[in-house]
Amino acid sequence: MTADRFLRTGVFLAPFHQMNENPTMALERDMDLLVHLDKLNYHEAWVGEHHSGGFEIISSPEMFIAAAAERTKHIRLGTGVVSLPYHNPFMLSSRMMQLDHMTRGRAMFGVGPGALVHDAAKIGLKAEDQRPRMNEALDAVVTLMDGGVVTQKTDWFDLNGAQLQLQPYGAAPMEMAVACARSPVGAVAAGRHGIGMLSIGGTSDDALKAHAANWGIYTDHANAAGKVADRGKWRIVTFAHVAETREQARRDVAFGLQHFADYFREVATFPIIPADVSDPLDYLIKEGIACIGTPDDCIAHFERLWQGSEGGFGAALLLAHNWADWDATRKSYELMARYVHPHFQGHANHLRQHSYNVAAGNRDTHVAAASAAVSGEIDKFHKKAG
User: Fold this and answer.
1) HSE (CB half, 13 Å, CA atoms) of 347?
2) pTM summary value
3) Which of 82, 268, 300, 357 is found 20 to 30 A from 172 (Cα to Cα)?
């Protein structure tokens, strides 16, 4: 940990759940995860929106966040992300402003074009229209969330003097961020509005280069729009599962990794694990996409992300993958909070170690002084009693 950096931590909760488990219990476990993370001092959690495919089963992140806010105290809760082309921007902004009040300012507004093409197909939306529609909606949403009035007509929404009836809960508008995966569209949109960027799409060496390039694009468009390119608003999503030993971590992920790999090979349109990979575990580790090992391995993984960002970023978000069973998953997040996060959050133990070393170096002197003081008091007692 260097004096000039502080890396926030959080999760990106799609969520991913095996097809053979009870969906009601799966959703409750997602809620329990956020409560667990809140107690462990994770800074934020982003909750996804998906409507088809069977594996990612939260369709309304706003509803989930409202419930999570009642069970947690500190963790910030964001939509990760709402697919803008699926919603009227005025209605969506109204719901998010209500959520800002219901969470007492802990809500964040993450947006994107929609990651699952089969979601878009269900409502007759063509893949080539998703990103242009995201930009059209984002222009309206940013103005609305800032208290402005929007009159804007497109081929899919028509706003006439639209203005929200609530102001933000706090002094500042709700924090917003745009998902940025393979194309630079998200970086351009986020930079143009001066809002945050969520880098999704893996953390291999090539992916990190792409993320850094997109941050450069963000910076260029932020500067052109008169906005500040603040790296603290940049979040990078990665994978990690840790245990006491590397061998234990590998055994843990045998629970659900293959189900996850099958989903991305058979249903999802984003190629996290290519179809020709015979061993997903080794592939994820060797490519730098995931850390499956010990807390020390995770520290090295985060350090690699920091270096690959070419200047630093604001938060490392763990994609909640459910590769391990519930007990091992809880333990993984706890081990990271205990032994990984302090390295990146100014809680490193160098001052404690210095204090320990000083005390240890003077122990003989202090023991002698304490012994003499005790003996002196004993002598005083006997003299007074005698």
Assistant:
1) 10
2) 0.94
3) 82
